[in-house]
């Protein structure tokens, strides 16, 4: 069964990474796969805090939807990046 991480936990790890911690060290310390941590960092860099909201519900905030549309329309993001 997959482990579910809260948005707060994800944000905590991303902020620790941005403060200078290594991905490998953070992943090992918190028992999180490094690839997953990399994905959270990418989501945060693209969408800020909204990028770390759980995607299981498929109920995305309207702000995130509008941002994705604007980024795609302005060619800031590819269609694939908008769908992440």
From TrEMBL:
| InterPro entries per record | Homeodomain-like_sf, Transposase_8, WH-like_DNA-bd_sf
Q: Which GO terms describe its biological process?
A: DNA transposition
Out of the domains of life, which is the source? Bacteria
Pfam family of this protein, just one?
A: HTH_Tnp_1
Report the GO molecular function annotations: DNA binding; transposase activity
Designated name of the protein: Transposase
Q: Which species?
A: Pedobacter kyonggii
